[in-house]
Write a structure and sequence with these properties.
- Helices cover 52% and strands 10% of the residues.
- It is α+β, with helices and mostly antiparallel strands.
- The chain has one domain (4-376).
- Helix 3 crosses helix 9 and helix 5 packs across helix 9 (253-271).
- The longest helix is centred in the middle third of the chain and has 27 residues, at 155-181.
- The structure holds zinc ion.
- The site of zinc ion has 5 residues, from helix 5 and helix 8.
């Protein structure tokens, strides 16, 4: 049987050059190794229906069309991430952290008022801007590091940025795994002829009915967000925050960790929402719900872990402040100030928070079918 890395080359190789992340210098290489190690060893293993192991393999490629993609191969699951995603995400998390209060895990505020900085910080997120050479990744990393050093970032802030990065990149890879584990990739292939399940692609836009595509996102997001929060609370993180928190913390552990994951996902969703082949201002992606709506659904899923009493402080407050600071103190690729007009302009193809009941009902029905395609995620064997 073929090794997974060989299968990966067969499946994704034609789309672009593979990044050899081991050739990156440390500590840059660590940013790339983190999601790889996470998927292959920190997640509980999945098993096939006959009880054999179902391994996952993650790698990065240079390409001009998608951020992330999933494929269910016979020997295991493949997750393919655009080479610039870890670096751009790292940059965004560090810039965000530099305008946060680490001890409350909230953007800087004063008596409840968000602190507004004189000039918004630009956070790039357009993948097409990332070039196709490993040298350019190294150069971009050096530029990010020197801007962080110049800003005189403190150690605690840097550590907070790292934790945000870990949470966000975990979300990215686990979301792709979820599409495989929940049977979405097989279903899309068998029912709609979609060979590669890419997050944003013309094939998916034209072949997969939009309401089904959005329900698949809802399912993957919900399971991923709950998983990332639960793991952080269990102490299953690479970052030391899993075990030990900043000493001057002004909030309890659960609130700190949950707020941080909410912030991280919110940052991620401001970065990579669009189809690169179309100009930003006239693209409304129908394969995915608007990121603002996705975030609301994710918050509900996280709320099932925090419980009702802690929900406002652990989820709603960071969500509100983080959206506000990203809109006012940063310039991000996806501005949520337009969220309402974009999201509600065509109710027949896009779900909204109004139709939460509708999407969860459809998700429930669809997932029952999808399980028949899925490898088994063995959550309880450890
Ligand atoms: Zn997805």
């Amino acid at each position: 049987m073929k090794e997974l890395h060989q299968v990966f080359e067969d499946v994704f190789g034609y789309l672009g050059a593979l990044l050899e992340e081991d050739l990156l210098p440390e500590p840059l290489s660590l940013l790339y190794q983190l999601p790889v190690i996470y998927i292959s060893s920190a997640l509980s293993p999945a098993i096939t229906k006959t009880g054999g192991p179902y391994p996952f393999f993650t790698k990065f490629i240079f390409n001009n069309s998608f951020n992330a993609s999933a494929y269910d191969a016979d020997p295991g699951g493949l997750v393919c991430i655009h080479s610039s995603v870890p670096l751009l995400l790292y940059n965004a998390c560090m810039q965000f952290a530099s305008k946060c209060n680490v001890y409350t895990a909230l953007p800087m505020e004063n008596d409840g008022q968000l602190v507004l900085f004189k000039k918004p910080t630009l956070i790039p997120g357009r993948l097409a801007l990332a070039s196709e050479q490993i040298e350019n990744l190294i150069q971009l990393y050096d530029e990010i590091q020197s801007s962080i050093t110049l800003s005189g970032i403190e150690e605690e802030t840097f550590q907070y940025g790292l934790f945000l990065y870990e949470s966000a990149i975990r979300f990215v890879v686990m979301h792709e795994c979820m599409h495989i584990i929940l049977g979405h990739t097989t279903y899309a292939r068998k029912s709609f002829g979609i060979k590669l399940f890419m997050e944003v692609s013309e094939e998916r836009e034209s072949h997969l009915p939009h309401h089904i595509g959005q329900v698949l996102e809802f399912l993957a997001d919900r399971n991923t967000a709950a998983g990332v929060v639960a793991q952080a609370l269990e102490g299953n993180t690479f970052h030391t925050y899993g075990q030990e928190l900043p000493s001057l913390l002004q909030i309890d552990r659960q609130t700190f960790l949950t707020r941080s994951v909410v912030n991280a996902i919110c940052i991620l969703f401001h970065l990579f929402p669009y189809n690169l082949k179309l100009p930003l201002n006239n693209t409304v992606v129908r394969t995915h719900p608007h990121p603002y709506v996705r975030m609301q659904w994710i918050n509900r899923a996280i709320g099932s872990i925090t419980g009702k009493d802690a929900f406002t402080e652990a989820v709603v407050r960071p969500f509100g402040y983080t959206m506000a600071t990203l809109a006012r103190n940063f310039t991000t690729p996806n501005s949520w100030l337009m969220a309402n007009s974009e999201n509600f302009q065509d109710e027949s193809v896009a779900f909204s928070d109004k139709s939460y009941e509708q999407v969860s009902l459809l998700a429930k029905e669809l997932q029952a079918q999808l399980w028949t395609h899925a490898p088994v995620y063995n959550n309880t064997n450890e």
